[in-house]
């Protein structure tokens, strides 16, 4: 049985790792991280991995040092070398009785891993000044490795699609991460050594898919991780367990009794004909024109006794954003990926001779939603070779209330549990790294526990790479969202403060502030060169030990003044504080204890402090830049802005 996306294929097959090792090898093969144009991390132990014939003796040469190793029963071998301190070109090859492989153009230098969601994934060709930057990008000592998207239920030892190192230049840079490329290019200027940049990102992803099983356990997600592992072994059992969780959640939200839920064949919902397959916003129904929430779909179909005996394969096209399916009141599965057409294998015993009733719940969170089709792909394929077209005769019902927080299957991509780590980080093995650049957080805004998840993920990745002191530098969320005219609560600003605290509390963490280079109307700001420069600056402090702040300028204390005002003190400054385009520092708020008590107040820069005048009302908190897209003008001498913060006001004795 092989799982592909939402589909299960019943084939006689060996496990992936065994099948990959079964051919008669012409020569040993090194893993993609050690292919032509690779960069190997200097000054740290080197682990070279690859494949050969099972139980074959392999000699691996790195520079003038050789190691004799034995491939295991699956044909995998590992050779460990002492650190190489001198940067530059180096010899790498592997030889055995079956043949010899010589890797071309390998360099010793510094290697950086870049990961996160769409702002890290955004390519140079889609960023600002793309044409000019791509044209002038050639650098034979800067190498790029782009990891293809992959989802996996368990940690992969091999990439599903092997990436290849490429030398930076007009033919390779355009499709690479802009933030990562610009960071690596900036680091090349200072280090003068070969730099390898690895990009492994997925747009829209939360942090949870990037956390391995140990990290999941550290934040109390053992059950979800175990369900993902079960999905890898027995997809039907995992779907059944996930459906039971969803159904329990529904009954808890609505009070429905077992047997009376909307997914039952004879539920009491009022059904209306679906005008056509496609987003419900395009049906011409006024109440659905801008609707985000749940819609229930119903489709009846007839089967012969012969058709109903065997399992079937159900194709429902795009379910936007996420859909869950029942047939005859029995769960079939949930779509895990809104961007991918949904296909489900119908378990034995679900279908019946005669009338069958299929119920589909679709949850839409933004944009268009629904059973999006196209209509011609909607069908039930049966083992006897027959098909039941399902592109018409649907009905729908909109619930009076759409409960929020519906559980999703944990084997999805952007909201999964460890699935992107399994497919896109685990296959890197124990390669040496100098640092990790992380640009993510947009998808976790307003979800509790981000700091704990970030801490667990960093520890887990450091364990994998065998580098307890591995530097991690995060990009703080850029400006995004409608500008505000009055103080208000902000999940975006709250996330910025969480990101700062998470990185400041880590001995090898760093932060690149991006609050002033965002776009109020575009969550994907095109200015990535400055993001790269600020990442490089923070990386030089976190990874290379340069003597400037790892997190940039930050507010550390707000002290009550004798005149009823407040003095805000800062750390991590380069030089002093300065305002732009005004004599006053704008964006400061004084607040009381309760919500809704914040008010804007002007600030006056006094060297490395900002003085806020009292306004006669109680002030127990100070906030700054507390909005998704605030207007700010406070910088230090390194032209780094002050990011969002909230501090309690303390009193002096």
List strands and helices in order, with pairings:
Blueprint: E1 2-4, E2 7-9, H1 16-21, E3 29-30, E4 39-41, E5 46-51, E6 57-62, E7 65-70, E8 76-81, E9 88-96, E10 99-116, H2 118-121, H3 130-135, E11 139-146, E12 165-168, H4 178-191, E13 195-201, H5 213-218, H6 222-233, H7 235-254, E14 272-273, E15 294-303, H8 305-309, E16 312-320, E17 322-327, E18 330-334, E19 342-346, E20 354-363, E21 370-373, E22 379-382, E23 387-389, E24 395-397, H9 419-425, E25 435-439, H10 450-465, E26 471-475, H11 491-504, E27 509-512, H12 529-542, E28 554-560, E29 566-571, E30 577-579, E31 585-591, E32 599-606, E33 609-612, E34 621-624, E35 634-636, E36 645-650
Parallel strand pairs: 4-10, 10-13, 10-25, 11-13, 25-26, 26-27, 28-36
Antiparallel strand pairs: 1-2, 3-5, 5-8, 6-7, 6-9, 9-10, 11-12, 14-24, 15-20, 15-24, 16-19, 16-21, 16-22, 17-18, 17-20, 22-23, 28-29, 29-33, 30-35, 31-32, 31-34, 32-33, 34-36
Give the name of the CATH architecture of the domain at 225-397.
Sandwich
CATH superfamily of the domain at 225-397: Galactose-binding domain-like
Helix content: 10-25%
Helix and strand content put the structural class at alpha+beta
Number of strands: 36
Q: Give the termini distance in whole angstroms.
A: 71 Å
Question: What can you tell me about this protein's structure?
Answer:
Among the domains are: 225-397, Sandwich (Jelly Rolls), CATH 2.60.120.260; 554-650, Sandwich (Immunoglobulin-like). The model is unreliable at 1-23 (pLDDT under 50). By secondary structure, the chain is of the alpha+beta class. A hairpin with a 5-residue loop joins strand 28 (554-560) and strand 29 (566-571). The termini are far apart. It is 19% helix and 31% strand. The chain is built from 12 helices and 36 strands. The radius of gyration is 28 Å and the shape is flat. Strands 4, 6, 7, 9, 10, 11, 12, 13, 25, 26 and 27 form an 11-stranded mixed β-sheet that branches.
